[in-house]
Amino acid sequence: MTIALSIIILSTVIALGKLLGRCKIAGISLGVTWILFVGIIFSHFGFNLNPELLHFVKELGLILFVYSIGMQVGPSFFSSFRSGGIKLNLLSTILVLLGVGTTAALIKLTGTDGPTMVGVMSGAVTNTPGLGAAQQAFVDANGGDPSGIALGYAVSYPLGVVGAILAFILLKKTLYRKENMLAPSPAKNSDNVDNEVRKIEQDARSRGLKFVHKKIIISKRKLNGKHLGSLEFEKFMGVSITRIRRAGIEIAATPDTILQLGDVVTVVGAEESVAGMEKILGNSVKKLDEPNLIAIFAGIAAGCALGSIPIHIPGIPQPIKLGLAGGPLIVSILISYFGPRLKVVTYTTTSANLMIREIGISLFLACVGLEAGTGFVDTIVNKGGLLWIAYGAIITLLPLLLSALIGKFILKLKYNTLIGLLAGACTNPPALAFASEQDANSDEAAVAYATVYPLTMFLRVLCAQLMVLFML
């Protein structure tokens, strides 16, 4: 097969998959996962790539995808364990372990092939990096064909998306039926922030100045790694920074917050003072447009090297590796978190990060579909694929509902916070979209999702690898 034909097949699969991803049924879309199903259809009808090329492109896509995720979640990874984040991350960890336990129990009870069930588990919680990690662990361990893992993922993924949303609806109509779910729940530091803002507003108006708020981008490199409190903007400029948006995630603006190049901060104060802050912070998108490729490719190289190091664990017959999913994920988290503290610029624009992620996941899913499609129909009809769908439903719903009970009655979480947490623990963007729609005036669901997502993503990748290795 020529290179041109291979590129045509791969590009067509991705383009059609993205087009179908815009379609919604009952307000729910499978999004980018349609690429996987289009790849399966193409492969079923004989359109495929050279196996070596397919393997290379799949692994490259996986690396780009997980590395971009690490760059996004890294800045808030460790801070997510502070204060109330500890409680939320504890519950998300319980949910992950319940999923692993449920999967292990189903393997024991049904006799289903272990690696295939790990694929079913990854699909049931809509975790694509877990699928990649499981496949690579399988290949590293015995060099076998990992397409069975992809088949398990493919058949369970759709119900993984829908099942989570159905669970949220059930919780709303049962456990939270009598509660006022729309009552606002201010963040822990919001009272202090509001008081500071009111003081600045009163001061501005007492001097006949116009009080405004504005989003400003930090584009001056000298501010990279500075503690917000050390700059004393309230004292010298008469303004307050109330929110910080970093890599698409809102984080609290506290004196201990370390600023990073590319942070979008919300500044409030007198109009003249806010204008002065623009000069101090930079607010130049043009300066940030150039992608920082050194940090990206040096990090990927280090991540692949880390992922190739064998780790000996007692009780496991052979050493494990973090692999091409775990290694780059860990390195990107560490680089994006500690880089600014070491005065190293690791900033990548949100659009650039999203582009890398979308290209990575598109290449990966297209190759997974093309790899698994040959036996997909036969698996569904003759090899127990329908049962796998049922197993996936159990893996989706049972841990969710058990964790919801813990969140409701032990941790006393509000509905919006709980379903945001559950969506994050399942790494399920469509579920987050549903959760956010429950109260358009509150960001509780999004905050909970962002709080647990980094740790959950890491645990899902690690658990998928370990489960495959324990079962071989």
Task: Please provide a written account of the structure.
With 472 residues, this protein is mainly alpha-helical. It folds into two domains: 3-182 and 293-471; 190-289, 2-Layer Sandwich (Alpha-Beta Plaits). It has 20 helices and four strands. It has helices at residues 3-20, 34-44, 51-73, 84-110, 114-124, 128-142, 147-173, 190-206, 228-231, 233-236, 271-281, 285-289, 293-307, 323-338, 350-372, 376-382, 385-409, 415-425, 429-437, 444-471, and strands spanning 211-217, 239-246, 249-252, 264-270. It has a four-stranded antiparallel beta sheet with strand order 1-4-2-3. Strand 2 and strand 3 (249-252) form a beta hairpin. Helix 4 (84-110) packs antiparallel against helix 5 (114-124) and helix 4 packs across helix 18 (415-425). The protein is globular. The two termini are 34 Å apart. Residues 180-188 have low confidence and may be disordered.
Task: Explain the layout of strands and helices.
Elements: H1 3-20, H2 34-44, H3 51-73, H4 84-110, H5 114-124, H6 128-142, H7 147-173, H8 190-206, E1 211-217, H9 228-231, H10 233-236, E2 239-246, E3 249-252, E4 264-270, H11 271-281, H12 285-289, H13 293-307, H14 323-338, H15 350-372, H16 376-382, H17 385-409, H18 415-425, H19 429-437, H20 444-471
Antiparallel strand pairs: 1-4, 2-3, 2-4
